[in-house]
Design brief:
Blueprint: E1 4-6, E2 9-11, E3 17-18, E4 21-25, H1 63-72, E5 77-82, H2 84-88, H3 97-112, E6 116-121, H4 138-142, H5 150-153, H6 159-162, H7 183-198, E7 203-204, E8 207-208, H8 209-228, E9 234-237, E10 264-265, H9 269-276, E11 281-289, E12 292-301, H10 316-319, E13 323-325, E14 331-333, H11 344-361, E15 368-371, H12 375-379, E16 392-394, H13 401-406, E17 413-416, E18 421-424, H14 426-447, E19 454-459, H15 464-473, H16 482-497, E20 501-505, H17 545-548, E21 552-556, E22 558-566, E23 571-578, E24 586-589, E25 599-604, E26 606-611, E27 616-621, E28 625-633
Parallel strand pairs: 4-5, 4-20, 5-6, 6-9, 9-15, 15-16, 19-20
Antiparallel strand pairs: 1-2, 2-3, 3-21, 7-8, 10-11, 11-12, 13-14, 17-18, 21-24, 22-23, 23-28, 24-27, 25-28, 26-27
């Protein structure tokens, strides 16, 4: 039976509250399986209509191998990645039936493992053709854009073109993110969310580009919804991952744009429009320097004067009279405020959520909608309340931005994006994490009311400190992950304090130490065959296992009040108010990796049964009222963690 929503909790068919702790599956699902779309492999994308995503995240014959491990590590849910491209790459309205068959069969297998599933139509900076993933290549062609010209015009920066193993700066970690302000991604997102308002002249087959694009994405998801609607494991869909507002809200000259946090080339809207239309411009380039991002140089973009516009296709933005050329051939802004005057979340994002939900629910009425806005604007107070579909769940993402940017755990000196201040000291940093996650939970109440808050992505890059752990792993397979365990412990302590549902980013079956998750040098997978010493050991291949494989409740017959795990002492403690009307036991996950020599129990108002094989503790209350469970590790923890967790800058 599917879960239902009651207040901030998911409820199972026995009335127990369910804590969703899951994993994103998978990082490499962003790229095709055939031909291999890993971003370190050079391509011109001209085969974009013939690709296949069948086999992402893994072949059907490998499902049991990976799902057993995911379940063994205490996860009870998956955020299952699909892409619009995977479903509709061949052309508008041409759906990949083989891929839909594959996903249906794979999720049937997932259903047999009792895992809950959120379908995530994933995207990053719109599409593979402009440095990310998500939308099919024909979406560019439909609005008159030639994606083969992106690299030479600066319309997008792609690993497939720029990566040089002999020059780490040619395309480094997070280089893909500069595409958030580049022409290709910004144009497509502006059209997708605001075409009717900001590009009324841009039509495709008699429809405005906004209507055309949104209808095709929604119809693709409907094809998938028809396949999975009868599977109890599927809770519902996200309408879109990490929605991007493009240029909506920006002044054309960029004077109100925050480019200070952009890594790589920092384009203003007019810079992006002109360089992509054949004009050369000097664009600032920004890099991480200590705890900040600084401009380090300026580069001349598009010196050859190439245009991305397909011959006989109109330049959309010039056609809208946003800019023109004076008598001397010099470009001039005509309408600097063209993209202003609306609220992105209320006027553009919300209507899409409502429309997409309506389309999916016509074939899958029970589907929950997992909606999100970018977490940084939420924390900075830039997002106001906007309308979401009924039966929705707030599913924001949360990242330790300093550690991601520096590629080392900033456990003693970090930056608080919510307050705009530097934070010094391990205790203060952990408090900052807790406060940020609490702020996301409070936003849920403003957005929806009493509803679950699901952290759709929380992550840690495993290639910290120039991949130091991979070398140390050969000598010390557990101690090599000391820094990663410290970081993950800090993150999960904050999640537990807020009693949040959360999905770890990610589990990538084909991760390796060289290319990570096979996408843009990202390396977040908690599993890698390169760390698999013994294929017969289900834990082998796990990275920093002690950091994310932690005790927690899975189902609770009552109201939770408190849950905390001290990784050093090995004390897990939780309290809840029992509900005697629920006859099924509460279920706690007690992983052997945290208690290798066993544990002792201290209970109040409860009796317990330990299922050692399944790593579960079953709890039955003796009466209504407060129940207390304390699990204490026997023996010592086998990783020597620092008292102040982390390195200084």
């Amino acid at each position: 039976m599917r879960l239902s929503i009651e207040g901030e909790w998911f409820i199972d068919d026995r009335g127990r509250k369910v804590l969703l702790r899951g994993v994103n599956l998978s990082g490499s699902s962003k790229v095709p399986a055939v031909p291999n779309g890993a971003t370190h492999i050079k391509t011109d994308f001209l085969d974009h209509k013939e690709v296949s995503f069948v086999g992402r995240p893994f072949a059907l014959k490998e499902a049991e191998y990976h799902l057993q491990r995911i379940k063994h590590w205490g996860y009870n849910a998956l955020r299952f990645l699909v892409t619009w491209e995977a479903i509709e790459h061949a052309g508008p309205g041409e759906y990949d039936v083989e891929y839909l068959d594959y996903v249906e069969e794979l999720l049937k297998c997932v259903d047999s493992y009792g895992l809950h599933v959120i379908i995530d139509p994933h995207q990053d900076v719109w599409s593979r053709m402009c440095g990310g993933d998500g939308a099919p290549g024909w979406t560019f062609e439909a609005v008159g854009i030639d994606f083969t010209k992106f690299d030479e015009t600066g319309a997008a920066t792609l690993m497939q073109h720029r990566y040089d193993p002999n020059d780490p700066k040619a395309f480094g970690p997070l280089s893909w993110s500069q595409n958030r302000v580049a022409f290709a991604s910004c144009t497509m997102w502006t059209l997708f969310f605001g075409g009717e308002t900001f590009a009324p002249s841009c039509t495709v087959n008699g429809k405005n580009a906004q209507v055309f694009l949104q209808e095709h994405l929604t119809h693709s998801l409907v094809q998938l919804a028809k396949r999975v609607r009868d599977l109890d494991c599927v809770l519902g869909f996200e309408p879109i991952n990490e929605p991007n507002q493009g240029w909506i809200g920006s002044l054309v000259d960029g004077s109100n744009s925050d480019l200070g946090e952009v890594l790589g080339h920092a384009y203003t809207p007019i810079d992006a429009m002109l360089t992509s239309s054949g004009y050369s411009r000097e664009i600032p380039f920004r890099e991480v320097k200590r705890l900040g991002i600084k401009e380090t140089r300026r580069d001349l973009i598009n010196p050859s004067g190439v245009s991305v516009w397909i011959e006989d296709s109109a330049d959309i933005w010039r056609n809208e009279r946003i800019w023109t050329v004076d008598r001397d051939g010099v470009p001039q802004i005509v309408k600097n405020e063209h993209f202003t005057g609306t609220d992105f979340y209320h006027d553009h994002l919300s209507p899409f959520f409502l429309s997409c939900a309506k389309g999916i629910r016509e074939v899958f009425p029970e589907a929950m909608m997992f909606v999100q806005a970018p977490f940084e604007p939420i924390l900075k107070g830039q997002v106001k309340k906007f309308e979401v579909p009924p039966n929705s769940v707030h599913a924001p993402h949360w990242f330790d931005v300093a550690t991601m940017g520096m590629k080392r755990f900033m456990g003693k000196a970090s930056y608080d994006i919510m307050k705009g201040t530097t934070v010094i000291g391990g205790g203060r940093i952990r408090k900052m994490f807790t406060e940020q996650l609490e702020a996301l939970k409070l936003f849920t109440k403003r957005l929806i009311g009493e509803s679950p808050t699901v952290i759709g992505e929380i992550n840690l890059c495993f290639d910290l400190d120039k991949k130091k752990a991979y070398d140390e792993f050969r000598k010390d397979p557990v101690g090599a992950w000391k820094t990663h365990i410290q970081a993950l412990n800090a993150y999960y302590q904050s999640i537990d304090k807020n009693l949040l549902h959360a999905f770890h980013w990610n589990y990538t079956p084909d991760n390796d130490n060289m290319w990570g998750d096979q996408w843009n040098l990202e390396d977040f997978s908690i599993f890698s065959s390169d760390q698999q010493i013994d294929s017969s050991n289900i834990d082998s291949g796990g990275r920093a296992l002690q950091g994310f494989c932690r005790p927690r409740f899975l189902q609770l017959a009552g109201i939770p009040h408190f849950m905390e795990f001290d990784i050093k002492s090995g004390d897990f403690h939780m309290e809840f108010d029992a509900d005697s009307t629920i006859t099924e036991p509460s279920v706690l996950y007690i992983p052997r990796v945290q208690f290798p020599s066993g544990f002792t129990l201290d209970t109040k108002n409860a009796k317990t049964t330990h299922d050692k094989e399944k790593q579960l503790l079953l709890v039955l209350p003796l009466s209504d009222g407060r129940c207390s469970i304390t699990v204490t590790r026997k023996g010592k923890f086998d990783v020597d963690l620092e008292d102040d967790e982390g390195e200084s800058d």
